[in-house]
Amino acid sequence: MKDVVVLSGGVGGARFTRALRDAAAGQGMRIRVIVNTADDMWMAGLRICPDLDSVTYTLAGVNDEQRGWGRIGETERVSAELHAWGIGWPWFTLGDLDLGMHIARTSLLRDGVPLSEAVARLTSRWDLGAELMPMTDDEVETHVVTGEGTMHFQEWWTRHRAKLPALGFDIRGAAEAVPAPGVVEAVLEADAVLFAPSNPVVSIGPILSVPGIREALASTSAPVVGVSPIIGGSVVRGMADACLTAVGTATDAAAVARRYGARSDGGVLDGWLVDLVDAHEVGELATRGITARAVPLWMTEAEAAQRLARDALALAGSL
Ligand code: GDP
Ligand code: CA
Could you tell me the residue ranges of all domains in the chain? Predict the structure, then answer.
Protein backbone atom coordinates (compact mmCIF):
# COMPACT_ATOMS: atom_id res chain seq x y z
CA MET A 1 0.00 0.00 0.00
CA LYS A 2 1.61 3.22 -1.15
CA ASP A 3 -1.25 5.63 -0.71
CA VAL A 4 -3.55 5.37 2.30
CA VAL A 5 -6.34 7.72 3.35
CA VAL A 6 -7.68 7.78 6.91
CA LEU A 7 -10.98 9.29 8.07
CA SER A 8 -10.48 10.58 11.58
CA GLY A 9 -12.02 12.35 14.53
CA GLY A 10 -9.87 13.57 17.41
CA VAL A 11 -8.17 11.45 20.03
CA GLY A 12 -9.17 7.96 18.80
CA GLY A 13 -8.36 8.88 15.22
CA ALA A 14 -5.08 10.46 16.25
CA ARG A 15 -3.88 7.34 18.07
CA PHE A 16 -4.79 5.16 15.12
CA THR A 17 -3.12 7.47 12.61
CA ARG A 18 0.06 7.65 14.68
CA ALA A 19 0.12 3.85 14.84
CA LEU A 20 -0.37 3.57 11.08
CA ARG A 21 2.44 6.02 10.43
CA ASP A 22 4.79 4.18 12.78
CA ALA A 23 3.81 0.73 11.49
CA ALA A 24 4.50 1.85 7.91
CA ALA A 25 7.73 3.72 8.71
CA GLY A 26 10.32 3.34 5.99
CA GLN A 27 7.86 1.88 3.48
CA GLY A 28 7.34 5.12 1.57
CA MET A 29 3.63 5.15 2.33
CA ARG A 30 1.78 8.40 1.73
CA ILE A 31 -0.79 8.94 4.47
CA ARG A 32 -3.51 11.53 4.07
CA VAL A 33 -5.94 12.12 6.92
CA ILE A 34 -9.38 13.61 6.37
CA VAL A 35 -10.28 15.12 9.72
CA ASN A 36 -13.68 16.00 11.15
CA THR A 37 -14.21 19.74 11.63
CA ALA A 38 -17.79 19.65 12.94
CA ASP A 39 -16.59 19.99 16.57
CA ASP A 40 -15.11 23.37 15.61
CA MET A 41 -16.34 26.58 17.17
CA TRP A 42 -15.69 30.25 17.72
CA MET A 43 -14.63 31.22 21.21
CA ALA A 44 -13.06 34.44 22.45
CA GLY A 45 -12.77 35.50 18.83
CA LEU A 46 -10.75 32.41 17.94
CA ARG A 47 -11.51 29.47 15.68
CA ILE A 48 -11.03 26.28 17.69
CA CYS A 49 -10.58 23.01 15.74
CA PRO A 50 -10.37 20.27 18.39
CA ASP A 51 -10.03 17.23 16.15
CA LEU A 52 -7.46 18.77 13.80
CA ASP A 53 -5.43 19.84 16.80
CA SER A 54 -5.66 16.44 18.52
CA VAL A 55 -4.31 14.74 15.40
CA THR A 56 -1.63 17.40 14.91
CA TYR A 57 -0.37 17.28 18.51
CA THR A 58 -0.37 13.48 18.60
CA LEU A 59 1.54 13.08 15.33
CA ALA A 60 3.94 15.82 16.39
CA GLY A 61 4.55 14.10 19.74
CA VAL A 62 3.62 17.22 21.72
CA ASN A 63 0.30 15.86 23.03
CA ASP A 64 -0.43 15.14 26.68
CA GLU A 65 -0.59 11.35 26.62
CA GLN A 66 -1.53 11.09 30.32
CA ARG A 67 -4.47 13.47 30.24
CA GLY A 68 -5.48 12.20 26.83
CA TRP A 69 -5.88 15.55 25.07
CA GLY A 70 -4.15 18.89 24.57
CA ARG A 71 -0.46 19.80 24.75
CA ILE A 72 2.16 18.38 27.08
CA GLY A 73 3.55 20.84 29.63
CA GLU A 74 0.47 23.01 29.31
CA THR A 75 -0.43 25.98 31.54
CA GLU A 76 -3.77 27.77 31.75
CA ARG A 77 -2.93 31.36 32.62
CA VAL A 78 -4.69 32.98 29.67
CA SER A 79 -7.89 31.01 30.21
CA ALA A 80 -7.94 32.14 33.85
CA GLU A 81 -7.74 35.75 32.66
CA LEU A 82 -10.51 35.19 30.10
CA HIS A 83 -12.72 33.64 32.78
CA ALA A 84 -12.06 36.63 35.07
CA TRP A 85 -13.31 38.86 32.27
CA GLY A 86 -16.33 36.67 31.67
CA ILE A 87 -15.21 35.75 28.17
CA GLY A 88 -15.87 32.29 26.79
CA TRP A 89 -17.48 29.43 28.69
CA PRO A 90 -16.57 29.18 32.41
CA TRP A 91 -16.49 25.37 32.18
CA PHE A 92 -14.24 25.35 29.12
CA THR A 93 -10.51 25.87 29.59
CA LEU A 94 -7.99 26.22 26.80
CA GLY A 95 -4.31 25.80 27.52
CA ASP A 96 -1.85 28.58 26.75
CA LEU A 97 0.12 26.60 24.16
CA ASP A 98 -3.13 25.44 22.63
CA LEU A 99 -4.31 29.07 22.47
CA GLY A 100 -1.13 29.83 20.52
CA MET A 101 -2.36 27.43 17.84
CA HIS A 102 -5.83 29.00 17.83
CA ILE A 103 -4.39 32.51 17.52
CA ALA A 104 -2.09 31.46 14.68
CA ARG A 105 -4.94 29.72 12.84
CA THR A 106 -7.39 32.58 13.35
CA SER A 107 -4.81 35.05 12.17
CA LEU A 108 -4.44 33.12 8.90
CA LEU A 109 -8.21 32.76 8.52
CA ARG A 110 -8.64 36.52 9.08
CA ASP A 111 -6.14 37.09 6.27
CA GLY A 112 -8.42 35.10 3.98
CA VAL A 113 -6.41 31.87 4.00
CA PRO A 114 -8.71 28.83 3.70
CA LEU A 115 -8.66 26.40 6.63
CA SER A 116 -7.02 23.65 4.54
CA GLU A 117 -4.14 25.99 3.66
CA ALA A 118 -3.88 27.18 7.26
CA VAL A 119 -3.64 23.54 8.37
CA ALA A 120 -0.90 22.86 5.81
CA ARG A 121 1.09 25.87 6.99
CA LEU A 122 0.66 25.25 10.72
CA THR A 123 1.41 21.52 10.54
CA SER A 124 4.59 22.19 8.51
CA ARG A 125 6.16 23.18 11.83
CA TRP A 126 6.59 19.48 12.58
CA ASP A 127 7.44 16.38 10.57
CA LEU A 128 4.10 14.67 11.08
CA GLY A 129 4.62 11.87 8.58
CA ALA A 130 1.06 12.42 7.32
CA GLU A 131 -0.86 15.15 5.53
CA LEU A 132 -3.87 16.50 7.40
CA MET A 133 -6.90 17.75 5.52
CA PRO A 134 -9.98 19.28 7.10
CA MET A 135 -13.09 17.62 5.65
CA THR A 136 -14.14 21.06 4.39
CA ASP A 137 -13.00 24.69 4.43
CA ASP A 138 -16.58 25.74 5.20
CA GLU A 139 -17.86 26.19 8.74
CA VAL A 140 -19.77 23.13 9.86
CA GLU A 141 -20.83 22.77 13.50
CA THR A 142 -22.65 19.93 15.19
CA HIS A 143 -25.48 21.06 17.45
CA VAL A 144 -27.23 18.68 19.80
CA VAL A 145 -30.99 18.73 20.23
CA THR A 146 -31.98 18.01 23.85
CA GLY A 147 -35.11 18.42 25.97
CA GLU A 148 -33.44 21.52 27.45
CA GLY A 149 -32.76 23.16 24.13
CA THR A 150 -30.30 22.90 21.30
CA MET A 151 -26.64 23.53 22.03
CA HIS A 152 -23.23 23.31 20.39
CA PHE A 153 -21.75 19.81 20.57
CA GLN A 154 -18.93 21.06 22.80
CA GLU A 155 -21.40 22.34 25.39
CA TRP A 156 -23.29 19.04 25.43
CA TRP A 157 -20.08 16.99 25.53
CA THR A 158 -17.89 19.02 27.89
CA ARG A 159 -20.33 20.83 30.15
CA HIS A 160 -23.04 18.19 30.35
CA ARG A 161 -20.69 15.19 29.85
CA ALA A 162 -23.24 13.86 27.29
CA LYS A 163 -25.63 13.19 30.19
CA LEU A 164 -28.52 15.28 28.81
CA PRO A 165 -30.38 12.80 26.60
CA ALA A 166 -29.76 13.79 22.98
CA LEU A 167 -32.81 13.77 20.73
CA GLY A 168 -30.75 14.30 17.60
CA PHE A 169 -27.70 15.87 15.99
CA ASP A 170 -27.92 18.82 13.66
CA ILE A 171 -24.72 19.04 11.61
CA ARG A 172 -25.18 22.68 10.70
CA GLY A 173 -23.72 23.80 7.42
CA ALA A 174 -22.90 20.28 6.24
CA ALA A 175 -25.44 20.17 3.42
CA GLU A 176 -23.98 23.35 1.86
CA ALA A 177 -20.34 22.46 2.57
CA VAL A 178 -17.84 21.56 -0.13
CA PRO A 179 -15.06 19.03 0.48
CA ALA A 180 -11.72 20.75 1.10
CA PRO A 181 -9.30 20.80 -1.83
CA GLY A 182 -7.78 17.36 -2.35
CA VAL A 183 -10.24 15.43 -0.19
CA VAL A 184 -12.24 13.79 -2.98
CA GLU A 185 -9.10 13.23 -5.07
CA ALA A 186 -7.38 11.57 -2.10
CA VAL A 187 -10.24 9.10 -1.69
CA LEU A 188 -10.35 8.36 -5.41
CA GLU A 189 -6.56 7.90 -5.74
CA ALA A 190 -6.03 5.87 -2.58
CA ASP A 191 -4.89 2.25 -2.45
CA ALA A 192 -6.89 1.89 0.75
CA VAL A 193 -9.28 4.03 2.79
CA LEU A 194 -9.38 3.36 6.53
CA PHE A 195 -11.96 4.60 9.03
CA ALA A 196 -10.17 5.17 12.33
CA PRO A 197 -12.02 3.88 15.43
CA SER A 198 -13.52 7.34 15.83
CA ASN A 199 -16.98 8.30 17.01
CA PRO A 200 -19.32 7.08 14.23
CA VAL A 201 -21.95 9.76 14.89
CA VAL A 202 -20.09 12.99 15.63
CA SER A 203 -16.63 12.33 14.10
CA ILE A 204 -16.98 10.09 11.02
CA GLY A 205 -20.68 10.97 10.55
CA PRO A 206 -20.04 14.66 9.76
CA ILE A 207 -17.25 13.76 7.30
CA LEU A 208 -19.69 11.50 5.43
CA SER A 209 -22.34 14.22 5.48
CA VAL A 210 -20.27 16.64 3.37
CA PRO A 211 -21.73 16.26 -0.13
CA GLY A 212 -19.23 14.53 -2.41
CA ILE A 213 -17.28 12.57 0.20
CA ARG A 214 -19.76 9.70 0.52
CA GLU A 215 -19.98 9.60 -3.28
CA ALA A 216 -16.19 9.42 -3.55
CA LEU A 217 -16.16 6.52 -1.07
CA ALA A 218 -18.87 4.78 -3.09
CA SER A 219 -16.93 5.07 -6.35
CA THR A 220 -13.28 4.67 -5.32
CA SER A 221 -11.54 1.51 -6.49
CA ALA A 222 -9.80 1.38 -3.10
CA PRO A 223 -11.08 -1.01 -0.45
CA VAL A 224 -12.71 0.81 2.48
CA VAL A 225 -12.02 -0.73 5.88
CA GLY A 226 -13.18 0.50 9.28
CA VAL A 227 -12.03 -0.19 12.82
CA SER A 228 -14.71 -0.52 15.48
CA PRO A 229 -14.63 2.03 18.31
CA ILE A 230 -16.89 -0.34 20.26
CA ILE A 231 -15.47 -3.39 22.02
CA GLY A 232 -17.71 -5.95 23.70
CA GLY A 233 -20.71 -3.62 23.68
CA SER A 234 -19.01 -0.66 25.31
CA VAL A 235 -17.08 2.40 24.27
CA VAL A 236 -13.43 2.13 24.93
CA ARG A 237 -13.05 5.74 26.05
CA GLY A 238 -15.41 8.68 26.04
CA MET A 239 -19.16 8.81 25.68
CA ALA A 240 -19.86 7.65 22.13
CA ASP A 241 -22.59 5.37 23.47
CA ALA A 242 -24.71 8.47 24.20
CA CYS A 243 -24.35 9.50 20.56
CA LEU A 244 -25.21 6.06 19.21
CA THR A 245 -28.25 5.79 21.47
CA ALA A 246 -29.50 9.15 20.22
CA VAL A 247 -29.46 7.96 16.62
CA GLY A 248 -31.03 4.59 17.45
CA THR A 249 -27.89 2.48 16.96
CA ALA A 250 -26.92 -0.08 19.59
CA THR A 251 -23.51 0.29 21.25
CA ASP A 252 -22.24 -2.76 19.46
CA ALA A 253 -19.48 -3.28 16.88
CA ALA A 254 -21.74 -5.00 14.33
CA ALA A 255 -24.50 -2.42 14.78
CA VAL A 256 -22.01 0.36 13.97
CA ALA A 257 -20.90 -1.53 10.85
CA ARG A 258 -24.52 -1.98 9.76
CA ARG A 259 -25.05 1.74 10.30
CA TYR A 260 -22.17 2.49 7.89
CA GLY A 261 -23.48 -0.19 5.54
CA ALA A 262 -21.78 -2.31 2.88
CA ARG A 263 -20.54 -0.55 -0.24
CA SER A 264 -22.19 -3.34 -2.22
CA ASP A 265 -25.48 -2.23 -0.66
CA GLY A 266 -25.31 1.57 -0.88
CA GLY A 267 -23.12 2.01 2.20
CA VAL A 268 -19.48 2.94 2.70
CA LEU A 269 -17.66 -0.15 4.03
CA ASP A 270 -16.07 -3.22 2.51
CA GLY A 271 -14.30 -4.44 5.62
CA TRP A 272 -14.63 -4.03 9.38
CA LEU A 273 -12.36 -4.95 12.24
CA VAL A 274 -14.03 -6.08 15.45
CA ASP A 275 -12.34 -7.10 18.66
CA LEU A 276 -11.70 -10.76 19.50
CA VAL A 277 -14.52 -10.61 22.06
CA ASP A 278 -16.88 -9.73 19.20
CA ALA A 279 -15.70 -12.54 16.91
CA HIS A 280 -19.22 -14.03 16.91
CA GLU A 281 -20.39 -11.02 14.85
CA VAL A 282 -18.15 -11.79 11.85
CA GLY A 283 -20.54 -14.29 10.24
CA GLU A 284 -23.58 -12.07 10.47
CA LEU A 285 -21.71 -9.14 8.90
CA ALA A 286 -20.60 -11.36 6.00
CA THR A 287 -24.25 -11.99 5.11
CA ARG A 288 -24.63 -8.22 4.85
CA GLY A 289 -21.70 -7.81 2.48
CA ILE A 290 -19.14 -6.62 5.04
CA THR A 291 -15.98 -8.69 5.42
CA ALA A 292 -15.19 -8.59 9.11
CA ARG A 293 -12.15 -9.90 10.96
CA ALA A 294 -11.71 -10.27 14.70
CA VAL A 295 -8.38 -8.92 16.00
CA PRO A 296 -7.29 -7.17 19.21
CA LEU A 297 -8.64 -3.60 19.00
CA TRP A 298 -7.15 -2.07 22.14
CA MET A 299 -4.63 0.68 21.35
CA THR A 300 -3.18 0.65 24.85
CA GLU A 301 0.46 0.08 23.93
CA ALA A 302 2.22 1.46 20.87
CA GLU A 303 2.97 -2.08 19.72
CA ALA A 304 -0.68 -3.17 19.98
CA ALA A 305 -1.84 -0.05 18.14
CA GLN A 306 0.66 -0.67 15.33
CA ARG A 307 -0.45 -4.28 15.02
CA LEU A 308 -4.03 -3.00 14.70
CA ALA A 309 -2.96 -0.63 11.91
CA ARG A 310 -1.22 -3.54 10.13
CA ASP A 311 -4.36 -5.66 10.56
CA ALA A 312 -6.44 -2.90 8.94
CA LEU A 313 -4.00 -2.72 6.01
CA ALA A 314 -3.97 -6.51 5.71
CA LEU A 315 -7.75 -6.69 5.59
CA ALA A 316 -7.81 -3.93 2.96
CA GLY A 317 -5.16 -5.78 0.97
CA SER A 318 -7.19 -8.99 1.01
CA LEU A 319 -10.35 -7.38 -0.41
P1 GDP B 1 -12.65 12.50 19.72
O2 GDP B 1 -13.00 13.32 18.53
O3 GDP B 1 -11.51 13.07 20.52
O4 GDP B 1 -13.83 12.10 20.54
O5 GDP B 1 -12.02 11.17 19.14
P6 GDP B 1 -12.50 10.17 18.01
O7 GDP B 1 -13.88 10.41 17.56
O8 GDP B 1 -11.43 10.09 16.97
O9 GDP B 1 -12.40 8.80 18.79
C10 GDP B 1 -13.24 8.52 19.88
C11 GDP B 1 -13.51 7.04 19.89
O12 GDP B 1 -12.27 6.34 19.94
C13 GDP B 1 -14.28 6.60 21.10
O14 GDP B 1 -15.61 6.36 20.70
C15 GDP B 1 -13.58 5.34 21.56
O16 GDP B 1 -14.48 4.27 21.67
C17 GDP B 1 -12.55 5.07 20.49
N18 GDP B 1 -11.30 4.55 21.03
C19 GDP B 1 -10.48 5.16 21.93
N20 GDP B 1 -9.44 4.36 22.26
C21 GDP B 1 -9.61 3.22 21.54
C22 GDP B 1 -8.88 1.98 21.45
O23 GDP B 1 -7.87 1.77 22.12
N24 GDP B 1 -9.37 1.03 20.59
C25 GDP B 1 -10.50 1.22 19.85
N26 GDP B 1 -10.91 0.26 19.01
N27 GDP B 1 -11.23 2.37 19.93
C28 GDP B 1 -10.78 3.34 20.76
CA1 CA C 1 -14.08 15.25 18.23
Answer: 3-138+174-318
